Amino acid sequence: MTIHIGAEPGQIADTVLMPGDPYRAKWAAETFLTDVTLVNEVRGMLGFTGTWNGHRVTIQGSGMGMPSLSIYANELIKDFDAKTLIRIGSCGGMQPHVGIRDVIIAMTASTINSPSSGIFKEFNFAPSADYGLLANAVAAAAEKDATCHVGGIYSSDVFYAERPDLDEQMVRHGILGVEMEAAELYTLAARYGRRALAILTVSDHLQTGEALPSEDRERSFGDMVEIALQAAFTESRP
Ligand code: HPA
Known about the structure:
The chain is α/β, with parallel strands linked by helices and 238 residues long.
């Protein structure tokens, strides 16, 4: 048991999927896992442990934004020894060729700032995904209907951004989408020698203003959960 996670020792699996929304954690656990146990409800940030194809998996909400994700990822890694952490979430599309419902597999996550910025001082660390997980996820996504993009994303501190000049530079430099958590997850994984990946569904588009209707969100979210589970439990290439 930690300050923010009420699970007993041993109740958290080596592999943890992390949606931002705790109710998505509940839905994903009930939909994709068997023998599901509720392992955390501190602050309503629900976490569940169950079994997928014979493998133990925890699905733990991270909350929104890097400070919130950082709390859960730190405790999952340092107190519960989680080895593989996969964010499953939504993002805003930033490139014309990236459409609503498309899946983005984040190779890198750029930031202005993150909870880890303080330790780096003048150094610009490049948060990046675990290559083996990324390669597995790309292979798993190829078997689905969803269009998949692999590349850099932006982890923002604000949902309601007011920097069109910055958006312009990111689009110019090929950033595929914007979300609010991955960079800190990748940085913590690098620091503690764990595997991390972020798989995202495009829920809205910054250029076109389009947004995914709420009834479609569940199906797109399901594709991501399946890609994440297959990626986690496929033997990794070096
Ligand atoms: N901005 C930041 N985070 C997001 C967005 C967005 O447009 N869409 C989904 N998560």
